[in-house]
Amino acid sequence: MSVASATGSVASLRGALLSSVTALLVACGGGGGDSGGVTPPPPPPPVTISRAEAAAFLRQSTFGPTTGEIDRLISQGYAGWIDQQISQTASLQAPALRALPVAATQDDRVDLWFRHAVQGPDQLRLRVAFALSQIMVVSERSGLSQFPVALAVYYDTLTQNSFGNFRELMEQVTLSPAMGVYLSHLGNQKPNTALNIRPDENFAREMMQLFTIGLVELNPDGTVRRDAQNQPISTYDQAAIENFARIYTGWMFGGSQSFAQPSFNFDQPMQAFETFHDTGAKTLLRGTTLPAGQTARADLEAALDNLFAHSNVPPFISKQLIQRLTVSNPSPAYVARVAARFENNGSGVRGDLAAVVRAILLDTEARSPAADAPGKLVEPLMRLTALWRAFDGRAASGRYRLSNADILVGQGPLRSPSVFNFYRPDYAPPGEMRAAGLVSPEMEIANEATVAYMANLLAFATFAGNSAAANPASDDILIDIRNEQQIAGNAGQLVDRVADKLLGGAISTALRNEAIAMAERSPASATAGRVAEVIHTIVTSPEYVVQR
Amino acid sequence: MKTFNFNRRDFLGLTAAGLGAGALGLTPSGDAQAAPFTDYRALVCVFLFGGNDAFNMVVPRSLAEYNAYARSRQNLAIARDALLPIDPLTSDGAQYGLHPSMTALAPLFASGQLGIVANVGPLVQPVTRDQVLSRSVPLPPQLFSHNDQQDQWQTLAGRLSLKTGWAGRAADEIAVDTAAQRLPVNVTLAGTTSFQIGANSVPYAIGTEGSPAYFVLTNPQAALAAERRAMFERLLATRSASPIGRSFSAVQTRSLALADAVNGALAQAPTLRTVFPQSQLGAQLGAVARMISVRDRLAMQRQVFLVAIGGFDTHDNQNTLQPGLLGDVSNSLAAFQAGLTELGIADSVVTFTQSDFGRTLTSNGDGTDHAWGGHQLVLGNPVRGRQIYGQMPSLEIGGPDDIGGGRIVPTLGADQYAATLLRWFGLTPGQITAAAPNLANFSVRDLGFVS
């Protein structure tokens, strides 16, 4: 009996996995460093692209390489491929959720996220949107738990602005009703001193700390600026938060009859109700003052302009996007090169995210890393999507029904435990990395429990969730291994085929030999078992978990 | 043939897989324990993520103090007659009550197992409101910021640049004494946090059902399981060129090496009659109780567990959210204490809360914002309960403890709180100072809430 046909149902694994959900609540600190000089832009990347180089690029720019995408990238070149991706229409969640015959659930939303991640043609856009969703965080684990479409609308906002302008993104995020509920500036109103009521500071604080400028002044290369006493310099104080909190007053669901009669319309931006807006004069950052008597919208535009113009925004956002896409520990020079494109896309435009993404992916540090470069730990969700993309994993129903298995591995789409994301950008794993001042944000959610759940999920997705499975349920996600079964008699050829699909062939001799040996432990006739062993060996290997 | 099977394996067959703390690269620093531990003690940290509004958790009931509270809190004030009266052995002249949702914990205050530590928060040194406003003394950085103040509670870093947490440093200090333990001192059910990271020690993470078993590697009924496991271990042992790869391999190696030992031990755990709440916190504390019940099978003598509950960042809908949050804390902690009593180990476990910060006394309409000082709960038979430790602050807006907007300056430092717990845990004064680096700035170094 082959392993692949003796594996029980996907449902039984799901049950076993879901029997134990680990809380993943996180915190950390850190930061610091010296400034480095800005060096000229690197030379253009080499013209010819190997399959291994193509796969490495696609691990940074998509939810996982496929044979077709590797071929396309080699033929179009990096820049051409990026241009073609930018021109792709956005895969949106909300219209699809609204079209369902019954009210959408959060599972439906997550299902769509996986459909798009695994099958969407607009891979780069979706990958950037996912990165943005980890910076400007809104989460289902909040008062939004009953509003999957609201979360989908928010996600679509990110997807549609992935290659747009950051200033516009700031505004759409600020006026998103999902964000308004999540960070409680929806319904926020002017002070009532008689009742000791003052404006809600939640959004005002996190908009600065997490979404735009961060806590401390940065150099253009993302390193921390220090004062004469060698101390970091705060970007704002409590008074600034209180002023910005007064900016974000007077906003309610769009289409509401009045401030007190909310429409609960999550489909359109929030709407200002001037009676509830604090019209007093306000002091913004860097001494900018706003006169009394401005409308809610005028105050908002001025405040967002004030934040957008802050010199921290380019390095703060650029560095985090680098960490989400390419490497965890960009050199200050890499940050500076990308931040320079954020400041000016070459045509005098600040905040052009398409230019930023291009700069991140085409940088020499992303394209030609040193042999011992730390790279980036592949995010848990992408360990799943990469497998399913490489082997066209899908269910007969078309769905990706993971229930809450994604949370077990520490990460789910718009399922962060808090506005601080699944992990912090400066998380340093204990031991060697902490000592060396290196970070790996994703390691914050890679603990003994989550890595075991992940290994089990991957084992199941290869051994049980493959096209040789007997009597699969319509929701069972199956990878297509039929082509690989044809060559399973030759273990070396089989391993090379699998390695080509997953990594453009870039595996170490040690891993290749282990995979061959695992295949050959099954009889040549057990083709599905052999293929599953090989895929399992590679996708659970530590080598494969690090993208470089 | 059942290939995938989560059956737990017999503990005795798995001792070879055991990995003691000695394998984790421990180097003791200085003030080692004179004699090895002869007993078992556990600290259980319940982290309330988001910043618990503790001024609605413990509320004055006597009229003058209640009126001051109600004037400050306005529409967020708990009704006076709804408070659950508590009767401390030592009175400060006022009367107090617990939030109405905390019915399960109130009797434990009366029975002397629950204590309240008043108005504690991260401090570098004792500080007054005026000193804060004039910025004349060093303060912890980035007050009122979630992650920074969580970090302060967990690391006690103050103005120092510390990359380790106080439970992690405590584990470092007792490394020699706990070298025979099969698990690290620190166990987490709430992810990796600075709290449990030491210079040499690392926390070990489990799920609420124990350690997930690697079913295609370890199930003896699965074809090729042994071969797969050997392959998996060889690849983990292959040095990665990337430090991130090495870091990942270390976690995965520990995960695989310890899963069978933990699950084998847990398979022998007695079935508890105590029913834990269905909540995440209840499930985590249930798992801690089970882990404690098999402490001898894992040769454990000193353990620090971390559990957590989120959702305390009540900027919005506070009146709606608070009963569920505090009710969960109350029910889960009370169940945990009952479980420990049932196991006969209640004399050896102290449970305590930490949280990002207290919240503003002023309202933002229907919620509160980030502030500083707040009250914490300490629970257990070793706790000198039925007492309020420290000083209840004035709850007047603009009062002597308000640094603005109803943000209350702490009267006790988190270092003092941690030091009190670590003294009971068995650390020497020198070891305690290593774990609580700002303690030297305080004259009172043991708050006295543990026997």
Overall 3D geometry of chain B? globular
Amino-to-carboxy terminus distance of chain A = 39 Å
Q: Give the count of helical stretches of chain B.
A: 12
Q: What structural class do you assign from the helix and strand content of chain B?
A: alpha/beta
Largest interface: A-B, 104 and 108 residues
User: Runs of chain B with pLDDT <50, length 5+?
Assistant: 1-29
Describe what you observe in this structure.
The complex is a heterodimer of chains A (548) and B (451). Chain A has 548 residues and is an all-alpha fold. In chain A, 47% of the residues lie in helices and 2% in strands. Chain A contains 25 helices and 6 strands. Chain A has helices at 10-18, 51-61, 67-86, 94-98, 106-119, 123-133, 148-160, 166-174, 177-182, 202-212, 238-247, 296-308, 313-325, 332-343, 353-362, 364-367, 380-390, 405-408, 432-436, 448-464, 482-486, 491-503, 509-520, 527-539, 542-545; strands at residues 251-252, 271-272, 282-283, 289-290, 376-377, 546-547. In chain A, the strands form 3 sheets. Chain A has a two-stranded antiparallel sheet. A two-stranded antiparallel sheet of chain A has the order 3-4. The radius of gyration of chain A is 24 Å and the shape is globular. The two termini of chain A are 39 Å apart. In chain B, 62% of the residues are buried. The longest helix of chain B is centred in the C-terminal third of the chain and has 26 residues, at 318-343. Chain B has 451 residues and is of the alpha/beta class. Chain B is built from 12 helices and 12 strands. In chain B, helix 9 runs parallel beside helix 10 (318-343) and helix 11 (414-425) packs across helix 12. Mean pLDDT of chain B is 92; it is low at 1-29. In chain B, the strands form 2 sheets. In chain B, strands 1, 5, 6, 7, 8, 9, 10, 11 and 12 form a 9-stranded mixed beta sheet that branches. In chain B, strands 2-4-3 form a 3-stranded antiparallel beta sheet. Classes of the chains: A mainly alpha (548), B alpha/beta (451). The interface between A and B is large, with 104 and 108 residues.
